[in-house]
Amino acid sequence: MSGALIAAAAAAMMTTFGEKVTPENAWRDYPRPQMVRENWTNLNGLWDYAVTDVTKTSGRPTTWDGKILVPFALESKLSGVGRLLEPNEFLWYTRTIVCHPQKGKRILLHFDGVDFRTMVFIGHAEVTDIPHEGGQNPFTLDITPFVKDGENELTVCVWDPTEAYVNSRGKQSFKPSGCFYTRVSGIWQTVWMEEVAESYIASYKAVPDIDKGEVKFTFETVGDEPGEDVTVEVFDKDGRPVAKAQGGAPKGVVVKMPAGFRLWSPEDPYLYTFKASFGKDGFTGYFGMRKFSKAKDKNGYLRFCLNNKPYFVVGTLDQGWWPDGLLTPPSEAAMKFDIQTLKDCGFNTMRKHIKVEPHRYYHLCDTMGLLVLQDMPSGDGEWQDPMRAETVKRYGLYRQELKEMMDHLYSVPSIVMWVPYNEGWTQPGEFLTHSTMDFVRRYDPSRLVNGASGCWDWEGGHLLPEGWDWNKRVLTKHKPAGECEAADAVDMHLYRGPTMFDVNDRRVSFLGEFGGLGHPVEGHLWKEAKGSWGYGGIDDTKTRDGLEKTYLGLMKQLGDLASKGLGGSIYTQTTDVEIEINGLLTYDRKVLKYNPAVLKKAHDEIRARVEK
C-alpha cells in the first residue's frame, strides 16, 4: 500500500477511546506505577515538530511544520500528523520546559519509548552523551547540569530506519501486508520529568520466593551515600504494615513475609505494596508472591505450574496495535478494555507479541490478573535462513536490547516467561540461539524461558527443510540427559491446529500459536477492499454461527491434547490488526465476535481436565 492509502485507511477507523483523546487528557497518569515518586511533571501534549532531510540538515530547525500530540507516533492519526517518516529523514520535536534546580536535588528526564535513535538537547547543549538507540525500551537523562531556573528549550532529534538497520522493529514494515503493519516513528510513549535527591535509587528488582516465604530486593543506586542502607517496609492491600527489613543496596534486602501470606494468581491478583527509603530518597512500589515453574504431574507429564500446582496456560497472541494510535494505546481505559475482554472470555494469559507495552499496561495485568508471556521484539532478517551473515551482525544490539527489556520489566509480577525468538525472525543460528536462551535463564532464574517459538529449534523442536516448506518442518532430537537444553518449553506453531510435540522429560510441550479463524465484520474492516485474511482460513467462519462452531471444535481437540500432556496454548489473536481479521475483537474494538460466556465455559472445561 502507498503512504496515501495507509493514511486513508487509518483515518477511516477510530476506537471509541481514541475519539475521546485531547491534548489535555493524553496519557496523564503517573507512567511508572511500579516505582512511584511524588515530584514529577508530565510532558505529554502538543509539541512543535519538523521533518528534515538527513543529508541537508545543517542544524536544529528554526521553523517548524506544525503541532504533534505526544506521545503518539508521527504516522498515527492521534498524533495529528499521520505521515510516514523515511530513513533519509530526521524527525524533530521541541517544547519549553520549566525547571527549578535546587541544591541537593537532581532533575531526571524520562523517555518511555522513542523509535529509534534519539538525540536530546537543552538549548544548544546536547544532553545525550551517546545517542540512545532502541525503539522499545525507556531511557533516562540527568539534565541537572544543563537547565537554568525557569523556562528551557527542549529539543529532540529522531532517526528511524525501520527495516534498514540492525535494530528491533517488531512487525513494523515499509510496505504493510500480511502480518506486518504500519510503521511507527519518533516518540510513542510518555515523556516526563522527575525530581530526586542527590543520591537516589535508579531501579530495583523484586524476586519473590514463596517456598522460603520471602522476597529479595536489589537496588541500583546513583550518588555517593557512604554506608547508606536501604530500608524496605511492606504493607498489605489495606495499608497495614506486615514486614520490614534493611540492608546494603548492592547486596540487596531480604524481607521475610508473615505466615499465611497471600499468593498472586490470575484468579486472585493479590499485591503487596512497599516503601523503599535510601537517605533522602524514597519511592513506593508493589510485588506479588508468585512462582511460575515446571514440574511433573501425577501422571508423569511435565506441566507449567503456578504456585507449585499444575496450571494450564490458555491465552491469546496479543499484537498491541491500534487503528488510531498504532503502537500507542489511545488511553488507559483502552488497555483495560482489552485485558478485561480476555478475562471475560476465560483466558488467563496473553502472549505479548513482538512489542513492549507502556509500564501502565503491565500494571493492569498485575492488578486485574493476567499472566504475560513477553516476546523480545524482532529485528529485520530472513526467517528462512538464520545463518545469514547479516543476521549475525545484528546479534550484539539484539542482546543489548533484550537485556534492557528484561531489566525494564524484571519486577512485573504478571510476566512469567520470556520469549526470545519467534519463528526464526532475527535468529542467528544454533550456537547463538542457545547462547541467548542460556543467558536469559541465567539472568532471570525467577521465570521460565520459551524455546525458539515456532521454528528453528535445534533442541527438540522444528527446523525448516531444504526448500523452506513450512508444512514439511523437520523434528529435531532433544539433547542427551545431562547436556544443557536452554529452554523450558518446546513451542509448536500450527494453523489451524491444534497439535503438540510429544511429551518429554526436558521441556513442557506448548502450543505457542494456533487458530487464527478469520471472520470479517462489515463496517469494521481497516481495509474494506480485497486482502483481508485469517491465519487459519476464512471459508467456514464467515458467519457468526460458523465461527463459534469451528472455535468450539478446536477447543474440544485442545482439551484432548491437554489430557495427554499439553501444557498450554496461545490462540491467534486478541483483535483484528489492519488486514488480519482473526481477532476476538474487531480492530476498532467495537464488536466482540464471540459470546464471552461460551468461550469461558469451553476454556474452564479444558483447565479442569489438567488442574482438578
Task: Give a brief outline of the structure.
With 612 residues, this protein is α+β, with helices and mostly antiparallel strands. It folds into three domains: 3-197, Galactose-binding domain-like (Jelly Rolls); 200-288, Immunoglobulin-like (Sandwich), CATH 2.60.40; 293-611, Alpha-Beta Barrel (TIM Barrel). The protein has eight helices and 35 strands.
Biggest β-sheet description:
8 strands, parallel
Count of DSSP strands: 35
Spatial gap, N to C terminus: 50 Å
The helicity comes to 10-25%
Provide an overview of this structure.
By secondary structure, the protein is of the alpha+beta class. It has three domains: 195 residues, Sandwich (Jelly Rolls), CATH 2.60.120.260; 89 residues, Immunoglobulin-like, CATH 2.60.40.10; 319 residues, Glycosidases (TIM Barrel), CATH 3.20.20. 17% of the residues lie in helices and 30% in strands. It contains eight helices and 35 strands. The protein has an eight-stranded parallel beta sheet with strand order 30-29-28-27-26-35-34-33, covered by helices on one side. Strands 2, 3, 4, 7, 8, 9 and 11 form a seven-stranded antiparallel beta sheet that branches.
